[in-house]
Each structure stands twice: as structure tokens, then as C-alpha cells.
DNA sequence: AAATGATTTCGAAGCGCTTCGACACCTGAC
DNA sequence: GTCAGGTGTCGAAGCGCTTCGAAATCATTT
């Protein structure tokens, strides 16, 4: 059972090879009768174009690379949703997905790009000072990043709008009548590194609080229980009237709840808590939260990449955060 | 910056194109001096072979498809470890990985296979009566399955040796002096479907128990708390002297512990519990367990697939289970 | 010195597809 | 009846690589 080639289809339909190609690609007008004859032959013979030959001739592989950080510490449900959404969306655009792990590093990216194996790249979890970013800049292949590196100039990035997320949390607490609120953010070092998303959440939170005339503080937050507990204690010592807390640190959120319990402050009776974290974590603890929209991130990232493949300019985009109200705020 | 082709390398090194090809593939002897000259040119020019052209000429894409069940209900850590291991191992064999989701179904498989986009396929979580299995059988491309379908004849499958796993659990309990033990397995319907792995665990468990002259029973086990609780109650009513329980049902294991607690039986003081489940679940509950060796599964699956790609015959293999002793048995 | 055989290198023929320019045919306008 | 301008189709030239057979080179042997 030799594999069926376009020449077989052409012979079977009694037309030229190029005609078959044009029917399939739609790049030139073909009469309805010829078109139908060709399509019938395709069906009858079970023809599938050879991807390699197509890529070679057209300089388009119809494959995108998905570079995932398959290391420990990632939130798996988020990663999975993202990957699933990328694959599904890519298929809608008639593209396949080549899976790469971040630990091949820049070389892996250079390799797949230079080999014309993929037409574009999707990188998840880009770090602030990522060694791959300069490479992406002068790669011929377009790329889209999930997350913003330190200097996003000239790159296409997709991320949750953390400024708005911070603001939405503050607004939610304000609307519930809280007058004194706090943000527990990432560990201090993260701010010192100038990590964009942590800083932006903070700015949005404080701006909205100021706007609404609330008393607000924002403090970094470590991730071990003891450190979290003492930070929470310090916070309430300094601000006894505090009734609303936003936690933007998925590793610390459980500890914050524990610390509150230890201090004898009930949630939501005494203190309302809003988290900015993956949905599974918030769901488990029944927390009001702003989730990480993994599926939407994947979809938008692919959409942007496809636009770039078509030569369209594509700027970065920020996704609108959405608050899910659960049982930790009142 | 036109991309560098093999012709550029040949010109730069002052040799024929075919010589460059042979240097790179090692398929013919090339003198050391020529070889070095070519390799230098490759380095200087930054040459990377065009994957499409290579695939077209050699009929080898150097890509394998990884078909994952990206639906809910999978144990994510297991899936991730598996995927990571597959990608890493494939790279060792100079192959890349095309990521597909099971929801494209047989058509997706047919598509990538017929388009010569991949040389082989890796399917995870194959179901007992999987519609893709007959397809795989008469596909030209070799494939490896994780898990055993109803009829594995002529297929290459990799899985944990559940017969041994059942036996190891029984043996562990026997060594600790337990004389009356039970296996809580998959829900009844799973056995009725004739699912291989559930039945094999059961057989291994009972055989080992008989061997060691223990009193052993094996019962199916549902997955809601109430059903589990009543099953556990019935079990202990019927066998008051029961002191060892093996749970082979990752969804039920938490409920079993709860039910035991409700019956006033302490673990491990009154009852020893061994689980056959993903490591994260056992780790969380500090259970002695036989884990699902995701990483090893990935590695072995790729190894088998590569063997088949080289035309070697490859039978199915069963991985040796390993017991991790934690705090639930004594 | 010629012949033999190994060893190393070369040239050319594809692999299956896309795409460009050209050709054939058909309209309708003059 | 001729010619301009569409349509629809074809043929051929690659795309960049692998691989086969043959040529060229060199060391041995007779």
C-alpha cells in the first residue's frame, strides 16, 4: 500500500498536479466541475498531503512550538488547561503543536526555528531576565510570550491584566464596606527583581484604594508558614482595624488562612480574604478570587501568533480579570 | 539573512553536497580531514538542516506523536511526569514530540500518520475498547501504548506490572504479620468491562495471599464517600479479624481512610493500609504505596518506539512495581 | 609498470509539493 | 471577423535534502 501522492490524485481526476494543488489551497480559481472531480478523487484515494513536501515547497510547516516549563513548582491544572487550549486553538487554524520543554533552553529554540520545523513559537512562563528573550528578538520566526519579561519592547506578550486585578480586588472589598485593607504579595525578592506582575498588582491595588479613599497597605509575603504567620501578625498589630486582605501569592494563601485562624480572626466574619491565584486552589479553600485564565491565555496567544504568521502586526494584550465570589468575603 | 543550506556548507568547505550529507549522517566513511573541514564550515555558517527537506528525502520526520488524554479526571502530576520524560527521552534519540489531544480521535491519528508528519505514535491512557486500537493495528507507522487494551495482540504496550503490584502488597502485609487481608479495587463495572489492570491486580493479590496461606478477599469499590463507607463497614462486619487493606483505586483511597476513622479503626495501629496510586496522593496521606512510575513509563515507551522505528521487533513490557513504605502500615 | 582492490568523493536523480508564467479557450466590444 | 481581456488549466522549475551508482584517488600486489 504505497502512500497516495498528489500525482495519483491528479491522474485519477484527469487533471494536472498543479490543478489539484490549487483546488486544495484555493489560491486560484478553479471551475466548479473540476474542483468537484478533484475532491472526489481525494476522497476516493484517501489522499493526505505529505507534510514535509508541503513545508519544503511552501516554506510553511503549519506547526508551532509550545515551550513549557515542565519543571516542578508550576501549577499543573493551569499548565494543562493552557496546553489543551493551545492545541485545540492551533488545530482550528490548521496547525499542529510541537512540544518542547524549557530545559533545552535557547539552543532548542534555535534548533527548531532554524530547521524550519515550526513557523512560530509560544513560550510560557517567561522569566523577567530570560536568556531566550534576546534570541527571540532576532529570530525570523514570530513568537508570543505568556507573561511579560523585563523589556517587552518589540515582543508580543499575553498576560492577565494584573493592574486591573489588583484594582478589582480593592474595589470588591470597598463595595463590601471595608475601609482598611491590605495586599499580601509575592516574596520581597520578587519585587526587588522588578518582576512586572507583582508590582503591577500592587500598583493597581493601591491606586484603586486611594481612589476610593480607603486605608490600604501592601506588603511582601514569604512562603513558609512561620514567615507568613509572623507577617500576618505584624500586619494586624500595626493595623488593628484591618478587615480586608488580598493575597497574591498562591503558595502562601493556605498559610495566610492558617495564620488568621491562629490569630482568632474568622473568615469571612472578621476578615474578608480575596485571592489572586489558580482556580483549583481558590476552589478548594472556597475563596473569593481572581483566577488565572489559562484557557483564554492559550487561545489568545495562538490567535496572536497566527496573526503574526500572516504578517499582521500584533501588540501585546492584557486579559481582563474576572472576580469569582465565593465564601471568603462578605 | 537567507537561511544556510547544505549547498552553502558544501561550497564553503569545497566539497560536494553529498559529502556534507554523509559527514552529518555518518552513513559513509569520510576521511578525517574532510570531515573536520565540513564540520568547521557547519559551525562557522551556523547550519541547521531543513527538517522538511530531510523528511521528504529520507522518509523520516524524526518526530513522534504524543497523544495525551487532556480531559479532566487524569492525575496531572502523573501526566506531567510522563510527558516530560517522553520529551526528554525522545530528544536523546534526536526526535521531537508532536503534542496531540485524544479528542481529535482516530482522525487526528490518521491525519498525522498519513501526512508523514511523525514516524511513530505514543498513546497514553488507552481504553479497553478504544476505537483507535484497530486503526493503530493497520497503520504503517509503529506505535506504543501506555496501558493494555482488551486485545493487545500485535501491539506494543507498556504498563506497570499490576499482577506483581497486587502480590507485593499482599507480601508486604504478610511480612508484617497480618493474617487476614482485603483488596478494595476498582468499581464493579470496571471488572465487568474486563479491564485488564484491575483484574490483574486482583489476581496477583489473591495468588500471593494463597501462597502465603493468608485469608484474603477482594471486593470492588465505588468512589463516593457513602458507598465506600458502607463497603468498608460490610467488609469489617464480615471479617472482624481484618487487619490489612490494599486500596487500588486512587479516587477512593481518601474515603477509605475516612471510613476507617469513622469505624473507630486507627491506621496503622488497628489496620494497615497500602495504596496502589500516584505518588502525590500517597505522599499527601503518608500512605505506604506502590506508585505509578510515570517517568519510567515514558522512558520505556520511547525506547520501545525507537526500537520499532529501527525495524526491531518490540514486545510489550511490564514495569516492576516498587513499594514505598510510609506511615500507614506496621 | 600494470592491474587490483579499497577508500573516498562526486554528480545526479529523485522525494512530493507549491507556484510562476504561459497557453488555450471563451466572452463581448468594436 | 478580429482583438482585448478574462477564466481555467497546464507544465516545469524549484524547495533542500538523501542516496545510489560511478568516478577518482591511492595503496598494494603481481
Automatic annotation (TrEMBL), chains A, B:
<dbReference type="Pfam" id="PF13377">
    <property type="entry name" value="Peripla_BP_3"/>
</dbReference>
<dbReference type="InterPro" id="IPR046335">
    <property type="entry name" value="LacI/GalR-like_sensor"/>
</dbReference>
<keyword id="KW-0804">Transcription</keyword>
<protein>
    <submittedName>
        <fullName>Substrate-binding domain-containing protein</fullName>
    </submittedName>
</protein>
<dbReference type="Pfam" id="PF00356">
    <property type="entry name" value="LacI"/>
</dbReference>
<dbReference type="GO" id="GO:0000976">
    <property type="term" value="F:transcription cis-regulatory region binding"/>
</dbReference>
<dbReference type="InterPro" id="IPR028082">
    <property type="entry name" value="Peripla_BP_I"/>
</dbReference>
<keyword id="KW-0238">DNA-binding</keyword>
<dbReference type="GO" id="GO:0003700">
    <property type="term" value="F:DNA-binding transcription factor activity"/>
</dbReference>
<feature type="domain" description="HTH lacI-type">
    <location>
        <begin position="4"/>
        <end position="58"/>
    </location>
</feature>
<keyword id="KW-0805">Transcription regulation</keyword>
<dbReference type="InterPro" id="IPR000843">
    <property type="entry name" value="HTH_LacI"/>
</dbReference>
<dbReference type="InterPro" id="IPR010982">
    <property type="entry name" value="Lambda_DNA-bd_dom_sf"/>
</dbReference>
Amino acid at each position: 500500500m504505497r502512500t497516495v501522492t498528489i500525482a495519483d490524485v491528479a491522474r485519477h481526476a484527469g487533471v494536472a498536479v498543479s490543478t489539484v494543488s490549487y483546488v486544495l489551497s484555493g489560491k486560484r480559481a478553479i471551475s466548479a466541475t473540476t474542483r468537484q472531480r478533484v475532491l472526489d478523487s481525494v476522497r476516493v484515494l484517501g489522499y493526505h498531503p505529505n507534510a514535509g513536501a508541503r513545508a519544503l515547497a511552501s516554506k510553511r510547516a503549519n506547526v508551532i512550538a509550545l515551550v513549557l516549563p515542565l519543571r516542578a513548582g508550576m501549577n499543573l491544572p493551569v499548565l494543562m488547561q493552557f496546553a489543551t487550549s493551545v492545541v485545540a486553538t492551533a488545530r482550528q487554524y490548521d496547525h499542529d503543536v510541537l512540544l518542547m520543554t524549557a530545559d533545552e533552553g535557547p539552543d532548542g529554540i534555535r534548533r527548531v526555528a532554524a530547521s524550519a520545523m515550526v513557523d512560530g513559537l509560544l513560550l510560557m512562563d517567561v522569566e523577567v531576565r530570560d536568556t531566550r528573550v534576546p534570541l527571540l528578538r532576532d529570530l525570523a520566526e514570530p513568537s508570543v510570550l505568556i507573561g511579560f519579561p523585563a523589556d517587552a519592547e518589540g515582543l508580543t506578550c499575553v498576560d492577565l491584566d494584573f493592574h486591573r486585578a489588583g484594582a478589582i480586588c480593592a474595589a470588591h472589598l470597598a463595595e463590601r464596606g471595608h475601609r482598611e485593607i491590605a495586599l499580601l504579595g509575592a516574596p520581597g525578592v520578587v519585587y526587588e527583581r522588578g518582576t512586572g506582575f507583582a508590582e503591577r498588582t500592587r500598583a493597581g491595588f493601591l491606586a484603586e484604594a486611594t481612589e476610593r479613599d480607603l486605608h490600604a497597605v501592601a506588603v511582601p509575603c514569604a512562603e513558609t508558614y512561620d514567615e507568613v504567620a509572623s507577617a500576618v501578625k505584624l500586619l494586624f498589630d500595626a493595623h488593628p482595624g484591618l478587615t480586608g486582605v488580598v493575597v497574591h501569592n498562591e503558595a502562601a494563601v493556605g498559610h495566610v488562612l492558617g495564620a488568621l485562624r491562629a490569630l482568632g480572626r474568622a473568615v469571612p466574619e472578621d476578615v474578608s480574604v480575596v485571592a489572586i491565584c489558580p482556580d483549583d486552589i481558590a476552589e478548594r479553600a472556597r475563596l473569593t478570587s481572581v483566577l488565572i485564565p489559562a484557557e483564554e491565555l492559550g487561545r489568545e496567544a495562538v490567535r496572536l501568533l497566527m496573526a503574526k504568521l500572516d504578517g499582521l502586526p500584533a501588540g501585546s494584550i492584557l486579559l481582563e480579570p474576572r472576580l469569582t465570589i465565593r465564601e471568603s468575603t462578605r
